[in-house]
Amino acid sequence: MNIQIKESVLDFFKLERTHWLDESDDSEGNNGELSFGFTPEFFDDNDKSYDIIFNITLKHREGIELNMGYRAHFVTDAIISDEFKESQFVFVNSPAIAYPFLRAYLSNMLLMSGYEPMMLPTINFQKLFNDKKAKGKQESE
Predict the structure, then answer these.
(1) Are 4 and 49 a contacting pair, CB within 8 Å?
(2) CA neighbours within 13 Å on the CB side: how many for 107?
(3) Quick check: pTM over 0.70?
């Protein structure tokens, strides 16, 4: 099966100033708080494509909070099976392929909005997948 990322789009974006920083605040080491998740989405009307949808909430050190949904669209040359939908490729490889685009988008968006760019941390998608499998085994026991 040949799989490629076709496009990535912003589903929603909200940027809000939560407070003004005190000029004496020198917390350069504070990169803010991050809440991150992703889910795959498959389509009944198109059995040769799927999306990975990222949801992010970030409290930036410059007193802003942003919420965003970012979608990466993948296409294949074969029909997607139920087995593929639960595969490591969907939960590890696909988000790992799309994540650098998301990181660059977010960093550029902050810069263009007048804030210090903030690079999202690297994510170990393999560990997330392994943890999900282990949790599923524990719940079924």
Answers:
(1) no
(2) 11
(3) yes
* Beta strands at 3-17 and 33-42: parallel, antiparallel or unpaired: unpaired
Rg (CA), the chain: 18
Q: Which two tokens stand for residue 81?
A: 């099976």
Q: What is the pLDDT of residues 18-48, one digit of tens each?
A: 877 655 555 444 456 888 899 999 999 999 9
Helices (H), the chain: 82-85, 88, 94-112, 125-140
Tell me which residue of 85, 13, 78, 15 sits closest to 52, measured CA to CA: 85
Residue linked to tokens 């998608």: 125
d(CA 7, CA 1): 19
Predicted local distance difference test score (pLDDT) of residue 21: 62
Cα 44 to Cα 56, 76, 81, 100, distances in angstroms: 26, 15, 12, 28
- How far apart are the C-alpha atoms of 118 and 107, rounded to whole Å? 5
CA distance 48 to 58: 33
